[in-house]
Amino acid sequence: MKTKNLIRLLPLLSIAILFSCGKKNEEKKEVDTKVKVYTTIARSEEVDKTATYTANVKADIINQITPAMPGRIEKIYVEIGDRVGKGQLLVQMESSNLLQQKTQLANLEKDYARYTELLKVGGIAQQQVDQIKTQIDVLRSAIKNLQDNTQLLSPINGIITARNYDNGDVYAQTPILTVQQLNPLKAIVNVSESYFSKVKLGMPIIIRLDVYENETFTGKVSLIYPTIDAATHTFGVQVTINNTGMKVRPGMFGRVTLNFGTGKSIVIPDAAVQKQTGANDKYVFVIENGTARYRKVELGQHLNDNYEILSGVDAGDVVVTAGQTRLIDGTEVEIINN
After folding, report:
1. pLDDT for position 196
2. I need a surface site. Which of 45, 150, 227, 294 has the fewest CB within 10 A?
3. Phi/psi at 337 (nearest 5 deg)?
4. pTM
5. Confidence band (pLDDT; 50, 70, 90) for 8?
6. What is the CATH number of domain 35-51+264-335?
7. pLDDT tens-digit profile of 104-116?
8. φ, ψ for residue 284 (rounded to 5)?
């Protein structure tokens, strides 16, 4: 009888054992669903407040050398690349008309001298002397204008960067020469609206050029545009670049850094920052009550192995630095920091 009862109980015992094992496996499975991550604490640090913007270098002054009227070019005295000084003769235009005017002036001056002597002895009226004096003054002005347009001088110290004619050509509309001043140079950068009240005239800047990898050049803010671009929320800032070594040239591509002093900023390891697939958004995961939470962040400077965080993370937040690839917003996590 006892044997029969035991046989009847065996199926029930098997079911109980299987149920118990299944429950333990489910509990183990629940524990295993937590994603293991490494974390760090977002900290507030004193950092240099700098901002870097791309820019193309330009000549501070560009002069196009042209006469006031068409004419034949008699001689061009310079070539591309020549350094020239202010007031140096660059181009001689055809001067036959100028020579005629000078000859006429010389004759009038002789007549004026003779009329003056006649006036002293009463041999001529004062009105005649005044008339010839007026003619001389008008002719001298005309000759000065002709000289300015037949002898073309450099208005600045600079370098010839373009020559568009040869000797004997007839000047049309294209400038004969281009002269650019290369020291100082300038660049215009579009600065974020948030810095509008912080940019000051005379503020020092540093520029790095792609062509000189390990060298920096200095300058200062020389002009601040007074309005904000509504589309980009930026404003123009012109910087003047010191080029005493004459190594920098117009057209070079560079990065201009403005320094706004120091201040407190939130800093986290760059390994914590992720890029949103298909977008340019950056994000991190912050741990709250054992759960990963998605946070979109705005980045500032890259500081060695860290990022400055402008928004999205507060000091003291627990930020995931490894294991993010398995996380979505709301994932339960297990922190395994050593």
Report:
1. 92
2. 227
3. -60, 140
4. 0.60
5. low
6. 2.40.420.20
7. 888 778 877 887 8
8. -135, 170
Give the pair of three-digit tokens for residue 215.
């060298």
Is there a contact between 268 and 313 (Cβ–Cβ < 8 Å)?
Answer: yes
Alpha carbon distance 334, 338 (integer Å): 12
SS3 (DSSP) at 166: coil
> Comparing 40 with 263, which gets the higher pLDDT?
40
pLDDT at residue 123 tops 80: no
The string of pLDDT tens digits covering residues 189-231 is 999 898 899 999 999 999 999 999 889 999 999 999 999 999 9
| Tokens, residue 209 | 């050029």
Query: What DSSP character marks residue 164?
Result: -
Strands 170-171 and 71-76: antiparallel
271 exposed, middle or buried (CB, 10 Å; 0-12, 13-18, 19+)? Answer: middle
Output the DSSP codes for 52-69. EEEEE-EEEEEEEE--SS
Contact indicator for 209, 221 with CB cutoff of 8 Å: no
Of 210, 203, 165, 183, nearest in space to 72 by CA: 165
- Alpha-carbon gap, residue 279 to 300, rounded angstroms: 18
Element (DSSP H or E) covering residue 143: helix 126-150
Q: Mind giving me the DSSP string for 182-243?
A: EEEEEEEEEEEGGGTTT--TT-EEEEEETTEEEEEEEEEEEEE-SS-BTTTTEEEEEEEE--
Both tokens of 184, joined, read 């100082």
* 271 DSSP assignment: G
Q: Please give the helix or strand (H or E) that residue 35 lies within, else none.
A: strand 35-41
